[in-house]
Amino acid sequence: MARAMAEGKGFLGSIESSPTPPCERLAGVEISETTKPGVLIRIDSQRQILAISGDPVSRSLFADQLDAMTSAMATEAGGHRHIYYFPEHPYLLEGSAPLVLILPG
User: Fold this and answer.
1) Strand order in the sheet with 10-13
2) Which of 4, 12, 34, 56 is the most exposed place for a label (fewest CB within 10 A)?
3) What is the pTM of this model?
């Protein structure tokens, strides 16, 4: 996902597994490029996808953070990370949906 994020385009389909805890399954993640500074994360409920858009610099920051988070979580039992907007966030735009990253184990 981090590579697609840095490239600025792509669709990543869902992985077939049982969500834990049980939740609604997304069909995938769609990444697109914009010229507006910042990254916007939203849920497209009609298409059941997580839509992430942003400019190249902001997407690169997000990709680097995803890499760092997943590397750290790989050494933790039950590790997870939260990503959410707050004022003065270095790349997320206001209105972005909050995310919780969990590595299947």
Assistant:
1) 10-13, 28-33, 49-54, 39-44
2) 56
3) 0.78
Total domains, the chain: 1
| Contact between residue 31 and residue 8 where contact means Cβ atoms under 8 Å apart | yes
Q: Count of residues for the chain?
A: 105
Q: Which is nearest to 7 in space by CA: 48, 49, 89, 62? A: 62
The CB density around residue 63, as the number of other CB atoms within 10 Å, is 20
- Tell me how far apart the alpha carbons of residues 99 and 91 are, in angstroms, rounded to a whole number: 14
* Residues facing 39 on adjacent strands: 54, 92
Q: What are phi and psi of 22, to 5 degrees?
A: -55, 130
Question: Each residue of 29-88: pLDDT tens digit?
Answer: 888 999 999 999 999 888 888 899 999 999 999 989 988 888 888 777 777 889 999 999
Helices in 1-84 by DSSP H: which ranges? 2-7, 56-73
**Paired tokens of 87:** 């004022």
